[in-house]
Every structure is written in C-alpha cells, then in structure tokens.
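Q: What changes when iron/sulfur cluster is included in the input?
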Amino acid sequence: MVKGIYIHIPFCLNKCNYCDFLSFKCRESDKKKYVEYLKKEIMLYPQYEYESVYFGGGTPSILDSEDLKEILSLLKIKDKGEVTIEVNPKTVDYDKFKAYKKIGINRVSIGIQSFDEKKLKVLGRMHNSSEGKKAYLEAREAGFKNISLDLMFSLPDQTLEELREDLKELFDLKPEHFSIYSLIWEEGTNFFEKLKRGELKETDNDLEADMYKTIIEEGKKAGYIHYEISNFALPGREAVHNSSYWKNEEYLGIGLGASGYCDGIRYKNQVKFKDYYDNIDNGEKPILESEIVDEEAKEVYKYILGLRLLQLGVIPKGKYIKLCEKLRNLELLEKKDNRYLLTEKGLFIANDVFDEFV
Ligand SMILES: C[S@@+](CC[C@H](N)C(=O)[O-])C[C@H]1O[C@@H](n2cnc3c(N)ncnc32)[C@H](O)[C@@H]1O
Ligand code: SF4
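A: The predicted holo structure follows.
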C-alpha cells in the first residue's frame, strides 16, 4: 500500500562542490516544462491517499509557489499528513515561507550544512552563515512549527572544536529535527577531483568516529532522540516521510531520477530529461529500471532498512533469527522485548552489519 510520495526537483542555483545529486542549473522555461510533465506523471498513477509528501532535490525551493500549489492540488493528502519541502537558504524569504504555509506545506528542511563561514565557502555553498540562520528564523516567523536542518560533518580540515561550534549554533536555534551526514567523497564532484590532486584530504577515521560520538552525545544533551543513524528529532518529531522508507513501506517516486516502491516493485525513473519527457509523451511511466521485490528480497530490505531505526529495529523471522543472535553475541545488536536493535558498537560499523543480511 502506497503511503507517501517523493517528488524530485532536479534544479539548483549552482552545483555545490561535494554534491552528486541529480540536479542541474536551469532557465525559467526549463522549470515550467518540467512542472507540466511532473503533473502528467502523477496522473499516470492511481489516486492514492498520502500520509506524506516530500519535495526533494536538487532545490525544490527554486520553483514558484504557484507551481508547487498546482502539483499539490493533484494529490489527495490525509488529514494532518506531513508535507515537506527541502529548501536552500539562498532561494527563500519570509514571503515564500508564508506562501508555502498557505498551500499546505507544513514542514521545511533547510540545507544549512555548516554555520562556519569558511567551511561554507569550501563547500561551494551560495549562502553564508547569517543567511542560513535568517532562513530558519523567517520560516519560524512565517509560522512553521516543524523545521528540520541539514548539516554535514567530517568536512575538509574540520576540527572537533569546529564541529562543536556548529552543534552549538544548531542547538541554539532549536529545530524540531536535524540530519547530519558525514561527508561522502562522491566521484565526479569537484571535491573528488581535489582529493585526487591532493589539494584536499579525507578526515582521519578516528577523528570521524570522535565527531560522530560527539554529535550523538551533544544531541542527547540538547533533548534530541537519535532515532536513525543520521537523524535526530525532538520527541514526536521524527520525519514521517523518511521513516516510511526505513519501515520498508511503499511510496511513489515522481520526477527525473526519482526512486519509488509500488505494488511490490522498486523502480528508478529515467535520468535524462529527453527520455523522461518522451516516455510521458507516449503515456508511459518514465521508468528506467525496476526490480520485483519477492518475499526473500523484501525480508532483506526489512533488515537493512529497519535496523537504521534505532529504537524500532526489527523482529526477525526464519533464518534471520540465528543471524540476529550471532550479531547479538558479537555485541553488534541487542534484544529488547522481541526486537533487535543496533548497539552503539554496531552503529559505528552499521554498513558491515547490514552486509551480513545481504
Ligand atoms: C538535496 S540536499 C538538501 C536541499 C538543498 N539542495 C540544499 O542543499 O540546500 C540533501 C542533503 O544531502 C546532504 N548531502 C549532499 N551531498 C552530500 C555528500 N556528498 N556527503 C554527505 N552529505 C551530502 C546535504 O546535507 C544536503 O543538504
Ligand atoms: S547540495 Fe543541494 S544545493 Fe547543493 S548541488 Fe546538491 S542538491 Fe543542489
């Protein structure tokens, strides 16, 4: 049963130095055309009733609110459903946030990345530290009561002290939710090239582990529940949409390169505009590749996604009971009632733990 819908907006003002998300600089006419096709794609699916809607990118806040309104008008959203938009501080202001509220968006996720001026420059962000904070304060002023901030750590040359400064600024703002990802050096990015040329270097593993530990400790002290590997929330403010991914629930993925999971099939949409538009012109879903998720595969997804939810974990079945017990003996999982959860030790090597289930 489809619960949520993810809508991908593949446009950005500029490409950040570390980012390999599917996004491009664009003209006004590109946006208009794309929105028309998004609406057509939505109409290719049955009318579901959504518990969550997520505009992700790229930079969804690059679109006019009128366009977002037209897209939302096509969707049936449950009463009190979560409607999130990812925003880049450089593309928003008080009026835009007001408009978002008016069209039914009730959660914003702001791409802050860091509050450190120098780090923002290195990352190639268009916004500076005060613009990041300003975006947050304007969202509040416009009436948003559910705000998430996106940060990164393990940045080039970042010290533990600098991370602590970022955390302090973050907790001073008191968002309901925050995500914090360790920098991934993605092939094809400016950062990756600089790494190869020796102009930047990766963070030492021990320092990265210390940083992650600090985030967990300080997050806890500030009142946040560490509910997923990279996600923290005040009680009751866990992200509904993203949590549904980890609960292995079905959702539609709409837009260029979007992934979805619908009627037992996981799929990924076309990644080239021409193919995406051609498919839709032919009345076809613009799917590039898909995988039928049989019962066995569904079980595997259950563990590798479910263990990410640190308080919920998984209830194993069949042969996985033995595997969970083995991982418990290694102190990588712990058992609470009939659920298995990642331990702190497991958390630091989570990907190795997940590999055991594949
Ligand atoms: C689509 S972006 C968020 C919204 C908006 N595009 C922005 O950047 O302001 C999703 C988030 O993924 C994270 N991210 C992107 N590239 C990353 C990388 N190479 N390593 C770690 N995190 C990354 C960033 O925290 C980013 O805010
Ligand atoms: S981090 Fe966000 S703003 Fe920067 S290029 Fe990636 S999607 Fe665009």
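Observations recorded in class: The two ends are 25 Å apart (CA to CA).
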